[in-house]
Amino acid sequence: MRKIKIILGIITALSIVFFATGLFVKETNYTTEVVVNKSLNKVFQEFNNQENAKKWIPEIEKIETINKNIGITGSEYKIILENKGEKITMTEKVMAYVPNEKVTLFYDAENMLKTNDYLFSEENGKTKIILNATCRSHSYIMSCLFPYFKGTFKTQDTQYLTNFKEFVEQQ
Known about the structure:
The chain starts with a helix and ends with a helix. A seven-stranded antiparallel beta sheet has the order 1-7-6-5-4-3-2. By secondary structure, it is α+β, with helices and mostly antiparallel strands. The protein has one domain: Alpha-D-Glucose-1,6-Bisphosphate, Chain A, domain 4 (2-Layer Sandwich). The protein has helices spanning 2-24, 40-47, 53-56, 140-145, 150-169, and strands at residues 28-36, 60-67, 76-83, 86-98, 102-109, 112-123, 126-136.
């Protein structure tokens, strides 16, 4: 009986810690960066070409334009991803677009609301891309989970930026 009480106590404590996470951590933030051995103009142009996204984000199956604005800011896209046989539909909205400086993208993938703020700078003919990412959710349970997956999110975004770097440098 004592072992059962200990096990239940541990489970209760872990549950309290898990659910308290959502009370204290409202969003998950991280930063990653990559340096591309190409000029800023080339990197920024290739990064913002929707057709190229499939070449550095392998899960993208299809990108459809919902609304394309002349100034780019406010443009919206429907993106269909395939991940391990599961199709995920999300929307992408361009929140900010400053040529050769910044692109801010907002993604709504059902329970995951993610903002990717990409900053571009050039030094000695090389372009540095810095990604400041923020993940949050309308779902309380998902809000509790995100902090524990911060490393996974960061690893995935770092891989995408590395894929982009390799794609652009091969051109």
